[in-house]
Amino acid sequence: MDQNSIEREEEKAPSIGEKTDTSSTNDIQPPLSQPGPNVSKTNSRHSNALSRVASRLSTRSLKDPGPPPDGGVVAWTQVLCAWFAILNTWGFVNSFGAFLPYYRTILPQPASAISWIGSIQAWLLFALGMFSGRALDRGWFRPIVAVGIAFQLLGIFTLSAAKSYWQLLLTQGLCTGIGGGIFFVPIMGLCATYFSAHRGMAIGIVTTGNSAGGVIYPLVVRQLLPKIGFGWTVRVLGFINVASLAIVIAFMKPRLPPRKSGPLIDWEALKDKPYVLHVLGMCFIIPGIYIVYYYIASFARDTLSMPYTTSLNLVIIVNGVGIPARVLPGFIADRYIGVLNTMTICLLANIFILFSWLAVDSIPAVYIWTVFYGVFSAAFQSLFPTSIAEYSSDIAKTGTRLGMGLSVIGFSALVAGPLGGALLQAAHGNYTVPIAWAGASTLVGTILCVCARCMKFGWGVRIRC
């Protein structure tokens, strides 16, 4: 070995106390920049766990299952779950007439101010559905439904402790309205994906939950409020929500993978005159419905001296008789004369019945009147969402136009109850003014809807549409 080789070897040898560089010795320790096998396995396990969680929360892992099953145990289970959802959202809204007379006895505010509680709740159900429905398209059904149910339960159980007007407004009006508005549209949309030929029947059965809720909620209030007080009565309603909505979370099963959502607003719809006229007509019709649902019990108490607990029978009846009436019109429309023609017949009957309310002056008469109005108003309500869809020639834009229409109609629901209360207050408790306004508003709305139908499909009476 020469002198130069010896010097090079000495330069490589570390001195005493000097740290050795082992980064180049692969057989002793792996490079720091490359994780070892244990680290790789750990990262892989974490990644797989996150993927499993994401797949359970969303529908990203689903593949296109093909055409809807249109029946079967799973499909009809979705109908049952959607029925529970409607029972606890729109059924709750339609029951506000059972709460309004009680609130008038414990609050100093007039009926027009108290009505904002139910009106805000109804408006949020209309308005938020336009946005929450898109979560179903994006594959986030379970998270959005869970959030909505959480708001719903929070609102009900805090309502049980509410004492003042603002507490009632924030809990029953705002919180339950937000909760129901978040989850009811995705649930309805999911239910519809399981049916094709029997979709009309399935949705008709689901909407009977609206009427069933309008029976169950007032019935619980009537039976329990005098015995256990307001707080525990509302808690019982909360436990009903917990039990039924737990079934919804447990058994509702998305079947479609995420899909691209359309635009939130279809600006071309604003240039579609029949569509605009029809939505405007609905804005005049909806207030008449809420006048009845909110004030029928108060009318019986103030005008006919009916006791509070007995007056709640009217709220139960006006909702209960609507259960069969929500299924039959869809069958007639699909099989014989079309959605718009069927709805027009129901609206003409509603106009006549509303104006006949002015002649009701006895307890038997108010019971008979409530039955007739409950049947025809429920028939109309089962058809009006489908009627909006009739004005969309592009099926890809039907959902967008329906969401736009419902959001606009929601504002009429927002002002309906308070406006009726203001008219009642201005008339010094005389129900003639709000009743006449409800009938006249329904008449104007029907004229607008008929004009829209004729502009779109023609003026012939025999045209099926």
From TrEMBL:
Cellular location(s): Membrane
KW DNA damage (keyword) present: no
Listed Polar residues bias regions: 35-46
Transmembrane keyword on record: yes
Main location: membrane
Pfam families in alphabetical order: MFS_1
GO cellular component terms listed in the entry, alphabetical order: membrane
Region (Disordered): 1-46
Membrane-related topology note: Multi-pass membrane protein
Skewed-composition ranges (Basic and acidic residues): 1-21
Keywords, sorted A to Z: Membrane, Transmembrane, Transmembrane helix
GO molecular function, one term: transmembrane transporter activity
Residue spans crossing the bilayer: 73-93, 113-131, 143-162, 168-195, 202-220, 232-254, 275-296, 308-328, 340-360, 366-384, 404-423, 435-455
Family per record: Belongs to the major facilitator superfamily. Monocarboxylate porter (TC 2.A.1.13) family.
Name this protein carries in UniProt: MFS general substrate transporter
UniProt lineage: Eukaryota, Fungi, Dikarya, Ascomycota, Pezizomycotina
